[in-house]
Design goal:
By secondary structure, this protein is mostly helical. About 65% of the residues lie in helices and about 5% in strands. The protein is built from 20 helices and three strands.
Amino acid sequence: MYLELLERFKRSIDGLRDFVDLIQPMLNEYHKKESKKHDKAFAPIALARQIQIEDDLEKKIQLQERLAEIFDGEIDVTVEDLEKENRSEEEVVKEGKKYSFEVKGDTSRIDAAFEFGVKSNEQKNLLYVNSLISLLSSSEWFYSQLLHFFYDKNPHVAGIKKKTLTLEELKSFGTIEDAEKYLIDSKIEGLLRSSFLDWMDTLKSELSLGLGYLTDFMNELIEIYQRRNLFVHNGGIVNSIYLSKVTNSNKSIGDKLSVDEDYLDNAIDKIHVLFSLIACELWKTDLPEDEERADFLMDLNYGYLKRGKWMVAKLPNIFLTKDAKQPVIPKTYAQLNCWLCEKRIKGIDKVKAELEKQDFSDKSIVIQLALSALREDEEIFFKLLPKAINSEELPVKYLFDFPILEEMRSTKSFELFIKQNEKVKEYKENMQANNV
């Protein structure tokens, strides 16, 4: 049940990523094509600014003649220091100055260019806003499914024993179980209308989850949900509710929020991984010795390792290292990945002392290989590598794929090895034959 639910959640997340990846380049191409129509619209303003700052009289006259050729009208330019009071005219800020332009004449092309710019930004924002709303709808569904699964197995903790039903409601139920399910459904529906903090409080108080992995991200998650609420209920305009919920916000009432590519990408990463860990904690509580959980956590972290999302990739690995009933081997891999993430985030000097203390001589050759790669111990790595490949303990494809081996793949010793090792040469020939 847990694995099935987590995989459905992942498919929803992947579908959202695919949708954005599909629409975004199409939108960019459309904007690129349309923007060419407006390329020359701002040329008069650019010339007017050049005229204003040009000290050479002869060049200034040439610029004025050029401006007269391309624009039938006048453009007055005002220059102010940045410290002076802001004006409402269109502004260009450069080198500590503020340039304001008053255009007299036919401004239709300039107006159209500005309008296109606003429209272009709005279209991109709409894509990301709607994707954010879809993301949090998926998280709500996932949260509700977790609660349904738990309360169906443990109705005594759902807080419904003292709930009352009307006679008409009772008549509509065929069995006591139907009435119980109705009360659970009503409870969950009520929870979904509450705040994100209420969701987490319910997980702690009724499901007895610790949620320690959320601690560093609570403010960020609250802001994501509050931003979604603003777009759904207030047109993205900051209100007092947002400011009361979001700590250390630099926004003011009336500010208009937006969602850009980076914000959405970060929200998807955090919602996917952290909600998956909530499910895994419930899974661990319910079925502590289920080894499928380790496989899932390794798959979850690997996707983020491959994308270089070190902070996010570290979270499933930390969780697995603390999952007491899981096998030693995947927990060791998880620890290696934790060190890799720390190394990528902080640099090798921050983890070198910890790595040097490790004795993995009793571990598998692949684990020893990974440790030597983390240490950037080229001599030990290439001493172990032929045995790992030839024995097929390390499949050749992972030699080229594992993020933990990146430094070793960039060495001259690696270039020499792949030219000499028969299994590697055969693998590369097959790849080339299949045009991969």
